[in-house]
Each structure stands twice: as structure tokens, then as C-alpha cells.
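User: Need the bound-state model for alpha-D-galactopyranose:
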Amino acid sequence: MLSFEVPKIASLTKAIDLDSDGCIARAPGRINLIGEHTDYNGGLVLPGAIDKYAYFSCKRIPEPEIRGVALDLEEKARVPLDTTKATGILWMDFILGIVLEFKKRGKAVSGFAFALTSEVPMGAGMSSSAALECAALAGLDALFNTGFDKWSMIHMSQSSNHEFLGIQGGIMDQFASFYGKKDQVMLLDCRTKNHQYIALPSANMEWCLINSCVKHNHLSSGYNDRVAECKQALQDIQSHYPEVQDLSQWDKATMTSVRFSNETVARRAKFVYEENQRVLAFVKGLQEGDIRTCGLLLNASHEGLSMDYEVSCAELDLLQKLGQDSAEVYGGRMMGGGFGGCTINVCKESSIESVMKQTKDAYLQAFNIQAEYYKVALSEGAQVVWV
Ligand code: GLA
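Assistant: Bound-state model below.
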């Protein structure tokens, strides 16, 4: 008996002749209410897993090979098990990077076949890549009986991104994908790794995502640039305050003697400081049911991401402004790495359909692009079923 619904189950099974020796794993995408670009600075984030999943079926095969089928792309690929270089086939490289992490930790991985499919929109800032990696991690961990705990798998995904795929990402996406809980968001301190679940109030409000349907191609280079700029900011701080271990420990109010290398680096540091403060204020607002304050904090976060951190784009700025100008929207901001993808908005429940229609119409007029919108439900993290 399956413990969750699996879309395309016939294809996931048939593509690899899945039998009772194999399993299917799923892992969700995520939203992040607030706390953007803080994770790799040891700061605070407030993500939740969503009811859109990546699915990974797998079984052992006798040949020393990895054979994959990407159902959504209708593509197949096979590589020798000892492959250590990226193939250029992105979906295969995600899996290869994970396999290398198993090997790095001394775990024997034999030949296997896999198939994958995903409901998480790609390039929408909802963490489709991490969903895929976490589904593969959970599936392969079960298949090879390696017994990794969740945090090990979170770090394996991060390490694969850094070392194999060249993206210097943080831990928020993978954390949300493994730790997600129905109807809860999670306040994670990325330095201590402590987290707490917070129920999202639902009365008279609705959270929704608007996908700009653009993905600017400097996404990974822009992201890595920000990581490097934050490292520089940290070094500048440490030359005055050597005890500071990451950028989020910098207290702008008291550590006043810092001279940053340049104005850009100073703005990046200012953003990280302010975004962490906003997360704390946002959590207080949520707990007190003060959704208006939460909405204003979302708007302020967007302003910082756009002006100080410079990871927004004209399309996201317009979507956010349309919301900010509407009396029916409490607030909103770009979500995820930036340079395209979604905005996250909190609206009055009764008016959501009309607000979304107006926003989509205005966006179409300005950019000639059809935006998409999704209501999301907070959901469970990664799971495995044997078949
Ligand atoms: C991407 C990364 C995350 C995080 C966000 C920005 O989603 O994968 O680690 O840095 O961008 O908050």
C-alpha cells in the first residue's frame, strides 16, 4: 500500500521495471515567507514545504551503470557507475552529484536505474532542484540502506551543489524539503541549526505565489557573486571584530567601526543585517496575528532585495508593486534566489481571485508575458515508499 499518492505512477514504475526490490521517494519544493539570502550567512529563514513534489523511483541493476529516465522531458541517459565528471545533462548531473556524495562518505553504491518526474515548477524560485536532489537522496538512502540522517543528507545536497554543480547555495531549500510539516512553517537559525515549527494563521487570508515566468540567465553567476560579496563583508567585519564568525552575527548598531571594502559590499551587509531583524519581527507579527505588520515587512524585504542586494528584476518589481498598490494585498516580495521566479504574497482571502486577475492583466500589458499563480498548502517533507 502506498502511503501517499504518486502521479505518473505507472510511468515511474514501468520506466525501470520497478519490482518489490525498489522504492519510490518524493520530496517537496518550498516557499520562504521571509529571510532571503540569509541562509549562507548563518542567518534566519522561515520556509515551509509545499504540496508540490519531485518523485524518484529506483531499483538496483546488475550492471555497473546508472540508467535514468526523465519522464517530464521524455529523455533517457546512462553513464558508467564510476563517472566523476558532469555529463552536461542537468537532471543526470543532479543525481550523479548525489551519488558522488555517497561515495565520499564511504558508502558502496552499486548499479541502479531510476526515473523521475516533478510537480515543482522549474525556475520559479520554489526550489525544484533541491526537491529533486532530496527525493534522490531519500530514495538512494533507502535502496542502499545507508541510514543517513536528515542533516547528513541536507549537507550532502549542499556539498554536491558546491563541488559538482558549481552553485554556492545554502541549506534552506534542502532543510525545508526534509523537515516540512503540514500547515507549519519553520524558523531555522542557519548557524546553530536549531529550528522551531510555527503554525500559519489562516483566518481571512491566503498566501499565493505569482510566477513572473522569467528566469534571467545570470541566476547562478549572480547568486555566486552575492555569496562572494558577503564573504568579503565578513572579512571586513573580522578585521575589526575577529570574534564574528558569520555575517549574521554582525550587529550594525554596536559594531560601528567597520569600514567595508566598497559601497556595494556595505549594502550587501546592511541587507543581511536588516533581513534578519525582519524575520524576528515577522515571527512576532505571526504569533500575535498581526498580518498587517507582516505584510509591511514583506514589502520592506522586497525593497532591500531589489535596492541593496540587487537580486530582483523589472518583472518581479512590477508584480510586487501591483500588490503593494492594492488594498486587498497585505504585502509581498520576490522569493528565492531572485533574478526571476515568483513573488510571494499575502492577500485578503475574499478578494484573491480578482486581485490575481488584475495583477496578471497588468503584467501581461507591461511585459507581454502570461504570469501564473498558485495557491500553496504547507505539506510534509521527504518520504519513501517501497513497492
Ligand atoms: C536559493 C538557494 C537557497 C537560498 C535562497 C535565497 O533558493 O538555494 O539556499 O540562499 O536562494 O534565500
